[in-house]
Amino acid sequence: MNIQLEKMKQKQECERRKRLAEEKHKEWMQKKREEERREREQKQSKEMAEKATRELEKMQLQEKAEVKYKEWLKKKRAEESEKKKREKEKEKEREAELQEKRERSEKIFQEWLRNARNKPRPVLNGYGLPHRKSTGLYSCYTYVVA
């Protein structure tokens, strides 16, 4: 009877240990799951933070690029405006030179007209030679025989 009682006690002890081991295993599994869940959440939150940081950097870079583009465009437009201004000035100078040249030409022409009125006119008949007689060829070396 003692042996049976002893066996029963051992069996109960074994079952108690088994239950205890199962409970500890369940607790360990629950802790493990909880820990894995926390790690996943931390990983997700870290990834979200990194993603937000990347997006922010991307936006800042885009804004920076836009500002630089606007500055470049402003500079380019200023250069074009300056170039057009210089071209207009050159055109004005050319016009002024042409006008001055026309005025000089007109002045010279008027002076020539004034002088031409005062010059003696050549005799039309006889090529300016008396008695319409000349010998030899008609050239600058033509001479008159009287």
From TrEMBL:
Pfam families: CCDC34
InterPro entries: CCDC34, CCDC34/181
Residues covered by the Coiled-coil domain: 4-134
Sequence segments annotated as region (Disordered): 1-58, 76-103
PANTHER family attached to this UniProt entry: COILED-COIL DOMAIN-CONTAINING PROTEIN 34, NY-REN-41 ANTIGEN L15 -RELATED
Protein name: Coiled-coil domain-containing protein
Native organism: Anser brachyrhynchus
